[in-house]
Each structure stands twice: as C-alpha cells, then as structure tokens.
C-alpha cells in the first residue's frame, strides 16, 4: 500500500525540489533492488522453483488486482450503495481497504493450499517473493515512476506552462488540475522515502506469511497457524484502514504501524522456524563460500556380476 504524499502547499513554486527527486530515486532503487537481491539470496540456498515463483505472481494478479477491481465495480453498481460510496470518499476508502484485505487473505491461503501442494520450505519462500515482488514492480514502482516523470516535466517546462496547456486542452478540469499540481510540488520531499520503506517491509512481511502458511499446511505448526498468518495480513492492512477513516493524516504514523506489524511477524516467524524447522533456518541463513572449489563428480561404473 502506498499513500499519496500530497499535502496542501503554502506556496506555489514552479519546480519540484531537487531533494524530492533524490528521495524518489532512492525509493525506486529500493523497490526494484530488494526483491531482486532476495531472489538471488534465496536461489543460492534453495533449489530454484520457477513454478512457485509464478504461482505467487498469479495469485497477486488475481487476488491483489483483478478481483478487488471487479468487486469495486460490483459495489458501485449496487443501487443506493454505489451513490453513497461515490459521495463519501472516506467510506469508499474504508470499504475498499476491507475488500483488498479480504481478497489478499483469501488469495494467499487458497493459492498456497491449491497451487503449492506438497511443496517444500524453499518453494513457499519463492511463492511469497513472487506475490510481493510483482506488487512492488507493477504498482509501487509504477506509481513512483509516474511521480518522477511528472516532477521532471514540471522542472523542465515549469508549472505555469503545464497549467496553461491544461487550460487549453481541458478547461473544465484546469482549476482542479492546477491545485493538484501545486499540492504535488509542495509536498514534503521526505514523504517519497515512504514508498521504498513500505515496499521493503512488505516484501519481508509476505515472505514470513508464506513460511507460516507452509508450517500450517504441512502440519508442522499448530492448527491455528493458518488463521494466525492471515491475521497478520489483516493487521498489515489496518494502517491503511485507519488512514482512510481519517484517524491520522501523516504517512509516517502509518509507516510506524507497518514497522510494528512487520517486526512482530518476523520475530514470531523466526522463533517458530528456529524451534520447529532448524534445518530450514540453517539453509536460509548459512553463508555461501563462493571461493570454495567445485566438488568433483566421478563417473559411476557398473561392475558386472559373476
């Protein structure tokens, strides 16, 4: 989840501050680099399972994008409810946050149960990585790249010229567009760092959830393990729910709540794996000696029997 880092600006500058561009670049680098780095890290410690990775991608495309969009269309089409949601942005935000959380929870559980039958620990790690990596690339990185492109356009031609172009092409929305543009220019630059931090925490969090689902479905953990894992997913969506409800306006309050939920999930997952799956933990954390000479494989000879 990513909050729009817009805040009402007190002035109307003509350009986006350079530090904002720097923070956008740092976040974009984190969003792209962290999943790729984790992929190679995990690949060195477990056998690569492209199918598990693809399963995670497919589950997110269905449960994290397609089905929530269809649900929003369906809710908007319901007489009375659709008009209420369109006229109440706070209520619409709360409802869609709940819908997204429900589909993510259901998608992760059903995807793991149906697509990951008899899969091992490493495959579940790849499943979680596929789910969260495609989210980082398709949603968070895409949104941030659009902001970066807009900022570069503003700095190249100036806000006044962009607004003038908007007045000529779409005069009905020129006033609203001008306000949004100046809010964008005047937004606190540091807010753009939240994109990278949020994406990094989400990658680690979902991998932990996948590990807990592995423990539940392979019956290594207690019966309530699957419910606990999905409960963590719901808790991770609570900051967005509270934000949509208007309980706070600072994105850093949300990031602090994300950090708490992620830390609790990581701690619980680490403790459980250490106590119940020590070999998997050793494989995940062991050091790889890249300078070690390759092991020689000797041919097998079949000795004929008398």
From TrEMBL:
UniProt key word Transmembrane: yes
Aminoacyl-tRNA synthetase among keywords: no
Entry keyword set: Membrane, Transmembrane, Transmembrane helix
UniProt source species: Murimonas intestini
Superkingdom assignment: Bacteria
UniProt cross-references to InterPro entries, sorted A to Z: YhfC
Membrane-spanning residues: 20-41, 53-78, 90-112, 124-145, 199-217, 224-243, 249-270
Pfam families for the chain: YhfC (PF10086)
Descriptive protein name: Membrane protein YhfC
